[in-house]
Known about the structure:
The protein is an alpha/beta fold. The chain folds into 2 domains: 18-134, 3-Layer(bba) Sandwich (FAD/NAD(P)-binding domain), CATH 3.50.50; 147-304, Glutaredoxin (3-Layer(aba) Sandwich), CATH 3.40.30. It is 39% helix and 16% strand. The strands form 3 sheets. It has an 8-stranded mixed β-sheet with strand order 5-12-11-8-9-10-6-7. A two-stranded antiparallel sheet has the order 1-4. The longest helix has 26 residues, at 74-99. It is globular and about 75 Å long. The termini are far apart. The model has no long low-confidence stretch (mean pLDDT 90).
Amino acid sequence: KATARSPRWISVFALHSRQVESYGSGTTFLAGDAAHIHSPAGGQGMNLGLADSQNLAWKLAMAVQGCASPGLLDTYSEERHPVGRRILTSTDAAFAGMTSPGALSRAARGILFSSFGRKRILPILSARAPKMVSQLWVNYRASSLSQEVLPWKPWRSWPLHAGDRLPFLTLASTGKSTTTLDLKRGTSFVLVLFCSSEGAADLLLSGLDAAREALEPIAAGPGLEVSMIVDFMLKADATAGDLCSHASSPAASALSLFRVEDSADFKQKFGLKDGIALVRPDGYVGYLEALGMKSQLSSYVRRLTK
């Protein structure tokens, strides 16, 4: 049984909501609480700071290696400042909604915690909350480091765009289950070839040597890995050599081969059946190209490297 007594010590907790105008100037960069402070509503501060560091780290590494383009480090603030601004706006609104004595806020809280709100509104918010607070919604589609070559789609839009996080898929390789997260465990870029037929696999592999040549500045710097994801049946021990006549090339023989375990999930998250995606070290798709489109991979690499 708890007993209330007079407090021994009382302190004032002051909230701030501030953000620097730019996350970088010259060779000086700010991340985490040095770049932004806000209400703890939703517990978003840690993920925000970690993502800042993740975005900056690979760009700094390329600069230290001497292979970064002159403007690469500037994209840190370009990409992360809007995310920080949105978090500040949402946490301010959440805290005000929880604590404001205003009539509108009181009415909203009354509805939320009423019988109707607990049955109809809270379940919806609870389902959406994990994606919001984990910041899996973040994308860099508007970034100068995001480039895509996709066919025009007259209705809706493609589910996957350059600047999006590489979608989560369950994969199989040599009889073992894995995921797309395992493609990005290291600090290298990853070129992902994805296809839905053996014919498309043949075409993608036939162009792999040219793609590797375009990506040579990246391979020589942060490093490059190549993986292929296929959405058709394979033998448990299948290799690239089983897919096409071009597998004898050094580039094709070095790739890792994976099969999609849930075809519907692949179609829903990728949209494109066949193409290539260059995944950055932070797990975001920098370049996305549909099979059959004129490649702009070389021009994209020039944005990143000297």
